[in-house]
Structure formats: C-alpha cells, structure tokens
Amino acid sequence: LPPARRRPAARSPPRSPQVSSGVPAVSALLRCPPPVGLPSQGATPAGSEAAGEQAQEEEAEDRLKEHMDNLLDKSAKTRLAALQSLRLAFSSRTLSEFLLARRLTLTDSLEKCLKKGKGEEQALAGTVLTLLCLQMGSGPEGEEVFRSMKPLLVSILTDSMASPGARQSCATALGMCCYIAAADLEDLVSCLSCLESVFSPPSTSEGGSAPSQHGPLHCSALQSWSLLLTICPHTHIKSILDNGWLRLPPLLTSSSVALRILAGETIALVFELAQDMEEDLCHQDTSILCAQLKVLATESNKYRAKTDRRKQRSIFRDILHFIESGEYQDDTIRFGLECMYLDSWACQRTYQAFKEVLGSGICHHLQNNELLREIFGLGPPLVLDAATLKASKVSRLEKHLYNSAAFKARTKARSRVRDKRADVL
Q: Disordered: where is this region (predicted)?
C-alpha cells in the first residue's frame, strides 16, 4: 500500500486584530474563520472522518496512477519498484472499479515488461497480470485480458532459454487467468496441454525419473494444471483418468519435497474426480502406488530436513487415507466473522492456488472480492457497521486466557503419549 499520509503541521490560530474597545474586538472575532484543526459549527465528526477517508482514497489512487506510469520508465529499477507496489496494492485491496477504465493501458504496460524485461521484471509482471485478472473477474473484461496475454504467456513458458523465475510466474499466470476468465473449452484444453508438457516431459511419461532441474517451475506448472483440472468437463477428465494420471506417480520420486507433495495431492484429486464420476481407477499400478504412498507417509531418512519430513508424512497420511477409504478430512478457514470449510481436494487445491497468489491478502479478498466469494459459495459480501466490528474484536485478556487454556490442554494431551523412560531411570 502507499505510505500513510503525513499529517499537516499544526498551525496557531489566527490572531484577532488589535482594537481599542471591546465591542469591535468581539465583532472581529466573529468574522474570523475557526482555527485550523477545529470543526466548524456545521461540521460533524462523522462528516470530517468521511472527508478524511475520501482524501486518503484520492491520494492512494494518485499513487497508483503514478506507479502505472512508471511501468514505462527507462530505468529498470523504477519499473521494478512500480511492479512491486502494484503487486502489494492489488493483493491487499479490491480495486475493480478503479482498474476497469485503466485495464487496457495497464495490460499494454505489462506486455512490454514481459517482452523487454529481464528475469525479475518478467516474474513480477506475470504476478501483477494474475492479480489484474483476479480484480477484473470472470466477465468480458477479464476474458479480454486473458485472451490478449495468453500467447505471450505460453511463449515465455515454453521457452527453455527464458529465466526460470519468469517461466514459473507465467505458469501460475496462465493457470490462474485461464481458471478465472477462459470461456471456451479450446482455451482450457490448450492451457492444460501446455502446462502438462512442462511438468511431464516425454521421459517422465514413459516411466523415466522425475525432472531434477527447475523444481519451482515444475511445481507451478503442476499446481496450475491441477487447478484447471477442477473445472474440466467430464469428457476431458475421462481421457485423463484412462491413462493421463499415470504420469503423476513418477513425480513422487523427485528430490523436491514441494513437488512430491503436489504430485501426491494431485493424485488424490484425480481419484476424487473419478469417485464423483463413478469411474473405477483400479489399475494394475494402483497397488504399487499405495505402497509408494505408504513409504512417503512413514519416511524417516535423516538426509532430509526435519520439517520437510514432518510435513510430508502428515500430508501423505491424509492422501493414503483418502485413496484407501474415500474420506477427506475437512479443514476450516476463518476470516473476519466468517469461516469456510474445505471438504474436498478440489476446494483445497483452489484455495491453495489463490493463497499462493494473494499471500496475506487472501483474508481481505475472501471478505470483499465478489469473484472469490462466488467461487467458494460464500454469497455477497457482508455489510457490517462499526459497532458490530468493534464488538467482534477479542480483548487482549480474553486472548491470553484462551491461549493459556489451550496450552494447558495441549500439554496434558501430549504428556500421555510421551516417553516415560526418563522417570524410570
């Protein structure tokens, strides 16, 4: 966000004119304007607060216009600073009305950054493009942005000489923009094929080992591919269920823990889609897959980081449980006064994809962005007054008491399963 507006320096009240008698002094004071900083007789605190908010909004919009103009600056440092500021603003606020009239200009500037910029600039431009499409929504405006930028995104993604960071950002942008704004099945299928060619080269599809180079690129491509899989029609999903999903198990042997986890979650998503279509995935390799998942769910190799092992075991236990029993363990996401339940792998993949792009701004967009609320079935945004918001806030003492009680309960629960050999010795 733009930096906070500086308060104007305090001014001393205007002096009354020097007069000899008291009566002219009173009339002169009555004619003087009220001191700066004090409300006039007709002004109210609510009116002055609204005027201050409007002034701050106008200043923020002026700063955004300045950042957009800086995208065409000759200095690469200035363009990078402008892209970073736009990314922060788009991810933390809803600016659809402001961007609606400026989307064409901004799209052209981002296209120039993607064509002529270097690795970091291209990566930031891809992220800002994704956020722009998210702000525009799934209407004609968002579709226009996606159609105009799709060829360039595909070109950078499939260019082996391009920067890995730029290709990773373009993979995310291609998947997210297609998910949000693609209206034709042809666009969806072509994006799926392009992304699949990145994370599943011919050597992997033929049973080879998982790719070892550009791990983050393969993670972004696989994440975007699985996101688009959640909106595919049944006819295309059936072709993937027949033989396409067999390209995923080789990725479980990757040296990247993030790629292994994403591959496992995508396999669980494929089994869930098959379950919804009442299709049977009892392939001859399914038993081998379950054995591989059990190894990953109980792996304790010391050459892997402790946090990576813990995260991998936890996620693959859930994946194995779902494939064997068909039950998904629900997750709860709380934001403001609302909460959202993730009751399927498709919902979990969609939420993780948007969280990856929005970062800490995901809560704000879940509360105010109509597109996200429509995707997750949250209804229209809630309209809350200041009194309701103030009453919903938890005091510091209540937070302290809650944390103390939770800590005590957690200590008691863990003490029952801890090793007691120290007491025996």
A: 1-64
